[in-house]
Amino acid sequence: MDADSLTLLREIESIPVIDTHEHLVHCEELLEGRDDILQEYLIHYMSSDLISAGLRTDELEFARDRSKPLLERWTVVESCWEFCRHTGYGRAIDESVRGIYGIDRVDSSTIEELGSRFKLLNKPGHLKRVLKDLCNIELSVIDPWTGRFEYDSELFRRVWQPQNYLIPLPYESDVITWLENTYRITIRTLEDWLNAFEIELNDNLSNGVIGLKSVLAYYRPIRFRRVPREDAARGFREAFKDWEEAGHRGRFNIVLPDYVQDYVMHHILSVANEKGLFFQFHTGLLEGNRGVVSNSNPELLEELFLLYPEISFDLFHISYPYQSIASAMAKTYPNVYIDMCWSHIISPSAARNALNDFLDAVPYNKIMGFGGDYGFVDGIYGHLKIARENIARVLSNKICEGMMSCSEALRIAERLLHDNPVQVLLDRRSG
What we know:
Layout: H1 3-12, E1 17-22, H2 37-41, H3 46-53, H4 57-64, H5 70-84, H6 88-101, H7 111-121, H8 126-134, E2 137-142, E3 156-160, H9 175-183, H10 190-206, E4 209-214, H11 229-245, H12 258-275, E5 278-281, H13 302-307, E6 312-315, H14 323-332, E7 336-339, H15 343-346, H16 348-361, E8 367-368, H17 378-400, H18 406-426
Parallel strand pairs: 1-2, 2-3, 3-4, 4-5, 5-6, 6-7, 7-8
Helix pairs in contact: 1-17, 3-5, 4-5, 6-17, 11-12, 14-16, 16-17, 17-18
Protein backbone atom coordinates (compact mmCIF):
# COMPACT_ATOMS: atom_id res chain seq x y z
CA MET A 1 0.00 0.00 0.00
CA ASP A 2 1.19 3.56 -0.68
CA ALA A 3 1.67 6.12 2.08
CA ASP A 4 -1.66 7.84 1.50
CA SER A 5 -3.55 4.56 1.63
CA LEU A 6 -1.72 3.57 4.82
CA THR A 7 -2.61 6.88 6.46
CA LEU A 8 -6.24 6.44 5.53
CA LEU A 9 -6.15 2.81 6.69
CA ARG A 10 -5.02 3.85 10.17
CA GLU A 11 -8.08 6.09 10.43
CA ILE A 12 -10.39 3.38 9.07
CA GLU A 13 -9.12 0.88 11.65
CA SER A 14 -10.55 3.09 14.41
CA ILE A 15 -14.09 2.84 13.02
CA PRO A 16 -16.22 0.29 14.92
CA VAL A 17 -17.63 -2.34 12.58
CA ILE A 18 -21.09 -3.80 12.19
CA ASP A 19 -20.42 -7.24 10.73
CA THR A 20 -23.37 -8.08 8.47
CA HIS A 21 -23.08 -11.87 8.35
CA GLU A 22 -21.45 -14.73 10.28
CA HIS A 23 -22.02 -18.44 10.96
CA LEU A 24 -20.33 -18.44 14.35
CA VAL A 25 -21.52 -20.39 17.37
CA HIS A 26 -24.04 -18.28 19.24
CA CYS A 27 -22.22 -18.27 22.60
CA GLU A 28 -18.71 -18.69 24.01
CA GLU A 29 -19.50 -21.97 25.80
CA LEU A 30 -19.90 -23.76 22.46
CA LEU A 31 -16.18 -23.28 21.78
CA GLU A 32 -15.46 -25.89 24.44
CA GLY A 33 -13.72 -28.84 22.82
CA ARG A 34 -13.24 -27.12 19.45
CA ASP A 35 -9.49 -26.94 19.88
CA ASP A 36 -8.02 -28.70 16.84
CA ILE A 37 -6.69 -26.17 14.36
CA LEU A 38 -7.05 -28.14 11.12
CA GLN A 39 -10.47 -29.42 12.05
CA GLU A 40 -11.58 -25.82 12.56
CA TYR A 41 -9.71 -24.07 9.75
CA LEU A 42 -10.93 -26.65 7.23
CA ILE A 43 -14.63 -26.35 8.11
CA HIS A 44 -15.12 -24.41 4.88
CA TYR A 45 -13.53 -21.96 2.41
CA MET A 46 -9.89 -23.06 2.53
CA SER A 47 -11.05 -26.66 2.22
CA SER A 48 -12.90 -25.71 -0.98
CA ASP A 49 -9.80 -24.15 -2.50
CA LEU A 50 -7.77 -27.22 -1.51
CA ILE A 51 -10.24 -29.49 -3.30
CA SER A 52 -10.18 -27.16 -6.30
CA ALA A 53 -6.37 -27.39 -6.29
CA GLY A 54 -6.51 -31.19 -6.44
CA LEU A 55 -6.82 -32.47 -2.87
CA ARG A 56 -8.92 -35.64 -2.71
CA THR A 57 -11.95 -35.73 -0.43
CA ASP A 58 -10.51 -38.66 1.55
CA GLU A 59 -7.33 -36.64 2.10
CA LEU A 60 -9.40 -33.72 3.35
CA GLU A 61 -11.22 -35.98 5.79
CA PHE A 62 -7.88 -37.31 7.03
CA ALA A 63 -6.64 -33.74 7.57
CA ARG A 64 -9.74 -33.00 9.66
CA ASP A 65 -9.32 -36.14 11.80
CA ARG A 66 -8.09 -34.88 15.16
CA SER A 67 -7.21 -38.42 16.26
CA LYS A 68 -4.25 -38.38 13.85
CA PRO A 69 -0.95 -36.54 14.49
CA LEU A 70 -1.18 -32.89 13.44
CA LEU A 71 2.07 -32.81 11.45
CA GLU A 72 1.09 -35.98 9.59
CA ARG A 73 -2.23 -34.41 8.64
CA TRP A 74 -0.50 -31.19 7.56
CA THR A 75 1.81 -33.15 5.27
CA VAL A 76 -1.22 -34.46 3.36
CA VAL A 77 -2.54 -30.96 2.55
CA GLU A 78 0.76 -29.06 2.34
CA SER A 79 1.32 -29.07 -1.43
CA CYS A 80 -2.24 -27.98 -2.22
CA TRP A 81 -2.12 -25.40 0.59
CA GLU A 82 0.83 -23.75 -1.15
CA PHE A 83 -1.19 -23.51 -4.36
CA CYS A 84 -3.90 -21.71 -2.38
CA ARG A 85 -1.77 -19.55 -0.09
CA HIS A 86 -2.30 -16.42 -2.16
CA THR A 87 -6.04 -16.78 -2.76
CA GLY A 88 -8.27 -14.67 -0.55
CA TYR A 89 -8.96 -17.68 1.65
CA GLY A 90 -5.28 -18.48 2.08
CA ARG A 91 -4.31 -14.86 2.72
CA ALA A 92 -7.02 -14.45 5.34
CA ILE A 93 -5.73 -17.45 7.31
CA ASP A 94 -2.11 -16.27 7.23
CA GLU A 95 -3.21 -12.77 8.30
CA SER A 96 -5.25 -14.31 11.12
CA VAL A 97 -2.51 -16.49 12.57
CA ARG A 98 -0.11 -13.55 12.34
CA GLY A 99 -2.44 -11.17 14.15
CA ILE A 100 -3.96 -13.55 16.70
CA TYR A 101 -1.09 -15.95 17.50
CA GLY A 102 2.03 -14.02 16.48
CA ILE A 103 3.06 -16.68 13.95
CA ASP A 104 4.00 -15.45 10.49
CA ARG A 105 2.21 -18.10 8.40
CA VAL A 106 0.90 -21.64 8.34
CA ASP A 107 3.53 -24.10 7.11
CA SER A 108 5.39 -27.24 8.14
CA SER A 109 7.72 -25.31 10.44
CA THR A 110 4.90 -23.55 12.33
CA ILE A 111 1.90 -25.90 12.29
CA GLU A 112 2.67 -27.71 15.56
CA GLU A 113 3.39 -24.52 17.52
CA LEU A 114 0.32 -22.93 15.99
CA GLY A 115 -1.74 -25.98 16.92
CA SER A 116 -0.59 -25.68 20.53
CA ARG A 117 -1.42 -21.98 20.74
CA PHE A 118 -4.80 -22.56 19.10
CA LYS A 119 -5.62 -25.35 21.57
CA LEU A 120 -4.73 -23.03 24.43
CA LEU A 121 -6.79 -20.05 23.25
CA ASN A 122 -9.79 -21.38 21.31
CA LYS A 123 -12.10 -21.79 24.27
CA PRO A 124 -14.73 -19.64 26.02
CA GLY A 125 -13.60 -16.02 25.92
CA HIS A 126 -11.97 -16.32 22.50
CA LEU A 127 -14.98 -14.96 20.59
CA LYS A 128 -14.97 -11.71 22.56
CA ARG A 129 -11.20 -11.37 22.35
CA VAL A 130 -11.14 -11.66 18.55
CA LEU A 131 -14.37 -9.83 17.72
CA LYS A 132 -14.19 -6.99 20.25
CA ASP A 133 -10.58 -6.59 21.30
CA LEU A 134 -8.74 -7.42 18.07
CA CYS A 135 -11.27 -6.57 15.36
CA ASN A 136 -13.23 -3.68 16.91
CA ILE A 137 -16.50 -5.29 15.82
CA GLU A 138 -19.41 -3.71 17.65
CA LEU A 139 -21.96 -6.39 16.67
CA SER A 140 -22.18 -9.30 14.24
CA VAL A 141 -25.37 -10.49 12.56
CA ILE A 142 -25.29 -14.27 12.77
CA ASP A 143 -27.01 -17.17 11.07
CA PRO A 144 -25.55 -19.87 13.31
CA TRP A 145 -25.56 -23.58 12.64
CA THR A 146 -26.76 -24.26 16.20
CA GLY A 147 -29.77 -23.40 18.35
CA ARG A 148 -32.99 -21.56 17.49
CA PHE A 149 -33.17 -18.21 19.25
CA GLU A 150 -30.11 -18.21 21.50
CA TYR A 151 -27.35 -15.64 21.07
CA ASP A 152 -24.97 -13.58 23.17
CA SER A 153 -26.47 -10.09 22.88
CA GLU A 154 -23.14 -8.45 23.71
CA LEU A 155 -21.69 -9.88 20.50
CA PHE A 156 -24.53 -10.79 18.15
CA ARG A 157 -27.93 -10.27 16.60
CA ARG A 158 -29.62 -13.18 14.84
CA VAL A 159 -31.51 -13.87 11.59
CA TRP A 160 -33.82 -16.74 10.65
CA GLN A 161 -34.06 -18.86 7.51
CA PRO A 162 -37.73 -19.73 6.74
CA GLN A 163 -36.76 -22.00 3.88
CA ASN A 164 -38.12 -25.15 5.55
CA TYR A 165 -41.47 -23.91 4.26
CA LEU A 166 -40.20 -24.25 0.68
CA ILE A 167 -37.54 -26.96 0.73
CA PRO A 168 -37.36 -28.65 4.13
CA LEU A 169 -33.68 -29.41 4.57
CA PRO A 170 -32.67 -33.07 4.37
CA TYR A 171 -31.01 -33.02 7.77
CA GLU A 172 -34.17 -31.63 9.41
CA SER A 173 -36.28 -34.65 10.36
CA ASP A 174 -39.98 -34.22 9.54
CA VAL A 175 -40.59 -30.50 9.89
CA ILE A 176 -44.38 -30.94 9.82
CA THR A 177 -44.45 -33.13 12.92
CA TRP A 178 -41.99 -30.83 14.67
CA LEU A 179 -44.18 -27.81 13.97
CA GLU A 180 -47.32 -29.59 15.13
CA ASN A 181 -45.68 -30.67 18.39
CA THR A 182 -43.96 -27.36 19.04
CA TYR A 183 -46.92 -25.06 18.38
CA ARG A 184 -49.81 -27.46 19.10
CA ILE A 185 -51.28 -27.05 15.64
CA THR A 186 -52.49 -29.41 12.91
CA ILE A 187 -51.09 -29.21 9.38
CA ARG A 188 -53.07 -30.74 6.52
CA THR A 189 -53.53 -27.97 3.98
CA LEU A 190 -51.64 -25.10 2.38
CA GLU A 191 -53.51 -22.70 4.64
CA ASP A 192 -52.28 -24.63 7.69
CA TRP A 193 -48.74 -24.54 6.31
CA LEU A 194 -48.79 -20.77 5.80
CA ASN A 195 -50.33 -20.26 9.23
CA ALA A 196 -47.50 -22.30 10.74
CA PHE A 197 -44.99 -20.02 9.03
CA GLU A 198 -46.59 -16.92 10.54
CA ILE A 199 -46.66 -18.49 13.99
CA GLU A 200 -42.99 -19.44 13.79
CA LEU A 201 -42.02 -16.05 12.35
CA ASN A 202 -43.71 -14.24 15.24
CA ASP A 203 -42.01 -16.61 17.68
CA ASN A 204 -38.65 -15.76 16.14
CA LEU A 205 -39.29 -12.02 16.18
CA SER A 206 -40.47 -12.07 19.78
CA ASN A 207 -37.27 -13.91 20.72
CA GLY A 208 -34.92 -11.30 19.26
CA VAL A 209 -34.52 -12.41 15.64
CA ILE A 210 -34.16 -9.25 13.56
CA GLY A 211 -34.66 -10.37 9.95
CA LEU A 212 -34.87 -13.16 7.40
CA LYS A 213 -32.34 -14.91 5.21
CA SER A 214 -32.48 -17.21 2.19
CA VAL A 215 -29.89 -19.69 0.93
CA LEU A 216 -32.27 -21.23 -1.59
CA ALA A 217 -29.80 -20.62 -4.42
CA TYR A 218 -27.96 -23.72 -3.23
CA TYR A 219 -31.03 -25.79 -4.14
CA ARG A 220 -32.89 -24.02 -6.96
CA PRO A 221 -33.00 -20.84 -9.06
CA ILE A 222 -34.08 -17.78 -7.07
CA ARG A 223 -36.77 -16.70 -9.51
CA PHE A 224 -40.17 -17.11 -7.86
CA ARG A 225 -43.19 -17.02 -10.13
CA ARG A 226 -46.63 -15.83 -9.09
CA VAL A 227 -48.90 -18.89 -8.88
CA PRO A 228 -52.70 -19.00 -8.45
CA ARG A 229 -53.64 -19.94 -4.91
CA GLU A 230 -55.88 -22.80 -6.05
CA ASP A 231 -53.00 -24.38 -7.98
CA ALA A 232 -50.67 -24.09 -4.99
CA ALA A 233 -53.34 -25.50 -2.63
CA ARG A 234 -53.89 -28.48 -4.92
CA GLY A 235 -50.15 -29.07 -5.26
CA PHE A 236 -49.66 -28.97 -1.49
CA ARG A 237 -52.59 -31.33 -0.95
CA GLU A 238 -51.16 -33.85 -3.41
CA ALA A 239 -47.66 -33.60 -1.93
CA PHE A 240 -49.05 -34.07 1.58
CA LYS A 241 -51.04 -37.14 0.50
CA ASP A 242 -47.97 -38.69 -1.18
CA TRP A 243 -45.87 -37.96 1.91
CA GLU A 244 -48.29 -39.59 4.35
CA GLU A 245 -49.11 -42.59 2.14
CA ALA A 246 -45.39 -43.30 1.69
CA GLY A 247 -45.07 -43.57 5.47
CA HIS A 248 -42.74 -40.61 5.74
CA ARG A 249 -44.35 -38.95 8.76
CA GLY A 250 -41.84 -38.89 11.57
CA ARG A 251 -39.03 -39.93 9.22
CA PHE A 252 -38.65 -37.72 6.16
CA ASN A 253 -39.72 -34.29 4.98
CA ILE A 254 -42.49 -33.43 2.57
CA VAL A 255 -41.33 -32.60 -0.98
CA LEU A 256 -43.16 -29.61 -2.46
CA PRO A 257 -43.34 -28.99 -6.23
CA ASP A 258 -41.48 -25.92 -7.49
CA TYR A 259 -44.69 -23.98 -8.15
CA VAL A 260 -45.84 -24.53 -4.55
CA GLN A 261 -42.45 -23.33 -3.35
CA ASP A 262 -42.92 -20.22 -5.48
CA TYR A 263 -46.32 -19.51 -3.94
CA VAL A 264 -45.01 -19.99 -0.42
CA MET A 265 -42.10 -17.63 -1.04
CA HIS A 266 -44.48 -14.92 -2.19
CA HIS A 267 -46.51 -15.42 0.98
CA ILE A 268 -43.36 -15.16 3.11
CA LEU A 269 -42.38 -11.99 1.29
CA SER A 270 -45.84 -10.46 1.64
CA VAL A 271 -45.70 -10.94 5.42
CA ALA A 272 -42.15 -9.58 5.56
CA ASN A 273 -43.31 -6.61 3.48
CA GLU A 274 -46.12 -5.86 5.97
CA LYS A 275 -43.64 -5.98 8.83
CA GLY A 276 -40.95 -3.91 7.08
CA LEU A 277 -38.31 -6.61 7.58
CA PHE A 278 -35.02 -6.98 5.80
CA PHE A 279 -34.36 -10.11 3.77
CA GLN A 280 -30.80 -11.28 3.17
CA PHE A 281 -30.47 -13.25 -0.06
CA HIS A 282 -27.53 -15.45 -0.91
CA THR A 283 -26.58 -14.30 -4.40
CA GLY A 284 -23.54 -15.17 -6.48
CA LEU A 285 -20.90 -17.79 -5.77
CA LEU A 286 -21.92 -20.93 -3.89
CA GLU A 287 -19.54 -22.11 -1.17
CA GLY A 288 -17.91 -25.46 -1.72
CA ASN A 289 -17.19 -27.39 -4.88
CA ARG A 290 -20.77 -27.76 -6.04
CA GLY A 291 -23.87 -25.95 -7.19
CA VAL A 292 -25.15 -24.02 -10.19
CA VAL A 293 -23.92 -20.44 -9.91
CA SER A 294 -26.52 -19.15 -12.38
CA ASN A 295 -29.22 -20.12 -9.84
CA SER A 296 -28.05 -17.19 -7.76
CA ASN A 297 -28.00 -14.39 -10.32
CA PRO A 298 -29.65 -11.39 -8.57
CA GLU A 299 -31.41 -10.52 -11.82
CA LEU A 300 -33.77 -13.40 -11.00
CA LEU A 301 -35.05 -11.42 -7.99
CA GLU A 302 -35.95 -8.26 -9.87
CA GLU A 303 -39.72 -8.76 -9.88
CA LEU A 304 -39.63 -9.17 -6.09
CA PHE A 305 -37.97 -5.79 -5.65
CA LEU A 306 -40.98 -4.22 -7.37
CA LEU A 307 -43.66 -6.29 -5.66
CA TYR A 308 -42.38 -5.87 -2.09
CA PRO A 309 -41.16 -2.27 -1.70
CA GLU A 310 -41.19 -2.31 2.12
CA ILE A 311 -38.61 -5.12 2.30
CA SER A 312 -34.95 -4.13 2.42
CA PHE A 313 -33.31 -6.68 0.13
CA ASP A 314 -29.72 -7.30 1.21
CA LEU A 315 -27.81 -8.87 -1.72
CA PHE A 316 -25.00 -10.94 -0.26
CA HIS A 317 -21.43 -11.41 -1.51
CA ILE A 318 -21.65 -8.52 -4.03
CA SER A 319 -23.39 -11.25 -6.08
CA TYR A 320 -19.95 -12.26 -7.40
CA PRO A 321 -19.50 -12.89 -10.33
CA TYR A 322 -22.65 -10.83 -11.00
CA GLN A 323 -21.42 -7.71 -9.22
CA SER A 324 -22.34 -5.39 -12.10
CA ILE A 325 -25.92 -6.68 -11.98
CA ALA A 326 -26.01 -6.12 -8.22
CA SER A 327 -24.79 -2.58 -8.84
CA ALA A 328 -27.57 -1.98 -11.38
CA MET A 329 -30.19 -3.39 -9.00
CA ALA A 330 -29.06 -1.20 -6.10
CA LYS A 331 -28.86 1.85 -8.36
CA THR A 332 -32.39 1.26 -9.65
CA TYR A 333 -34.40 0.13 -6.63
CA PRO A 334 -34.59 2.09 -3.36
CA ASN A 335 -35.09 -1.12 -1.35
CA VAL A 336 -32.04 -3.01 -2.70
CA TYR A 337 -28.67 -2.94 -0.91
CA ILE A 338 -25.27 -4.40 -1.74
CA ASP A 339 -23.55 -6.45 0.96
CA MET A 340 -19.81 -7.07 0.65
CA CYS A 341 -19.85 -10.02 3.07
CA TRP A 342 -17.53 -12.86 1.98
CA SER A 343 -16.45 -10.89 -1.10
CA HIS A 344 -13.09 -9.60 0.17
CA ILE A 345 -11.82 -13.19 0.45
CA ILE A 346 -13.57 -14.62 -2.60
CA SER A 347 -11.26 -12.33 -4.56
CA PRO A 348 -9.68 -9.28 -2.89
CA SER A 349 -9.04 -7.61 -6.25
CA ALA A 350 -12.58 -8.26 -7.51
CA ALA A 351 -13.97 -6.75 -4.30
CA ARG A 352 -11.80 -3.65 -4.77
CA ASN A 353 -12.83 -3.24 -8.39
CA ALA A 354 -16.46 -3.76 -7.47
CA LEU A 355 -16.33 -1.20 -4.66
CA ASN A 356 -14.72 1.28 -7.02
CA ASP A 357 -17.65 0.77 -9.42
CA PHE A 358 -20.27 0.79 -6.67
CA LEU A 359 -19.07 4.18 -5.44
CA ASP A 360 -19.29 5.54 -8.99
CA ALA A 361 -22.75 4.11 -9.67
CA VAL A 362 -24.64 3.63 -6.39
CA PRO A 363 -25.49 6.04 -3.55
CA TYR A 364 -23.04 5.06 -0.84
CA ASN A 365 -25.75 4.61 1.79
CA LYS A 366 -26.71 1.48 -0.21
CA ILE A 367 -23.40 -0.37 0.37
CA MET A 368 -22.44 -2.46 3.41
CA GLY A 369 -18.71 -2.97 3.58
CA PHE A 370 -18.01 -6.10 5.62
CA GLY A 371 -19.33 -9.45 6.75
CA GLY A 372 -16.89 -12.20 7.61
CA ASP A 373 -19.23 -15.10 6.70
CA TYR A 374 -17.08 -17.52 8.72
CA GLY A 375 -17.92 -20.57 10.83
CA PHE A 376 -14.78 -20.07 12.95
CA VAL A 377 -13.89 -16.79 14.53
CA ASP A 378 -10.18 -16.64 13.65
CA GLY A 379 -10.88 -16.21 9.95
CA ILE A 380 -12.78 -12.99 10.61
CA TYR A 381 -9.60 -11.24 11.74
CA GLY A 382 -7.81 -11.84 8.45
CA HIS A 383 -10.88 -11.14 6.36
CA LEU A 384 -11.49 -7.81 8.06
CA LYS A 385 -7.85 -6.83 7.61
CA ILE A 386 -8.15 -7.43 3.86
CA ALA A 387 -11.50 -5.59 3.76
CA ARG A 388 -10.14 -2.51 5.52
CA GLU A 389 -7.16 -2.45 3.17
CA ASN A 390 -9.48 -2.75 0.17
CA ILE A 391 -11.65 0.11 1.36
CA ALA A 392 -8.60 2.28 2.11
CA ARG A 393 -7.09 1.66 -1.32
CA VAL A 394 -10.29 2.42 -3.20
CA LEU A 395 -11.01 5.59 -1.23
CA SER A 396 -7.39 6.75 -1.43
CA ASN A 397 -7.55 6.45 -5.22
CA LYS A 398 -10.76 8.47 -5.23
CA ILE A 399 -8.99 11.18 -3.23
CA CYS A 400 -6.03 11.17 -5.65
CA GLU A 401 -8.43 11.48 -8.57
CA GLY A 402 -9.91 14.59 -6.96
CA MET A 403 -13.31 13.00 -6.48
CA MET A 404 -13.46 13.56 -2.72
CA SER A 405 -11.60 15.00 0.23
CA CYS A 406 -9.97 12.98 3.01
CA SER A 407 -12.81 13.86 5.38
CA GLU A 408 -15.40 12.75 2.82
CA ALA A 409 -13.54 9.46 2.30
CA LEU A 410 -13.54 8.79 6.04
CA ARG A 411 -17.24 9.56 6.21
CA ILE A 412 -17.90 7.06 3.42
CA ALA A 413 -15.78 4.43 5.20
CA GLU A 414 -17.81 5.00 8.36
CA ARG A 415 -21.03 4.55 6.41
CA LEU A 416 -19.79 1.32 4.77
CA LEU A 417 -18.50 -0.30 7.93
CA HIS A 418 -20.94 0.95 10.54
CA ASP A 419 -23.79 3.32 9.78
CA ASN A 420 -25.27 1.62 6.72
CA PRO A 421 -25.57 -1.80 8.41
CA VAL A 422 -27.11 -0.11 11.45
CA GLN A 423 -29.67 1.62 9.26
CA VAL A 424 -30.56 -1.42 7.13
CA LEU A 425 -30.22 -4.31 9.58
CA LEU A 426 -30.45 -3.08 13.15
CA ASP A 427 -33.02 -0.27 12.98
CA ARG A 428 -35.76 -2.76 12.09
CA ARG A 429 -39.30 -1.54 11.50
CA SER A 430 -41.94 -4.04 12.50
CA GLY A 431 -45.68 -4.08 12.20
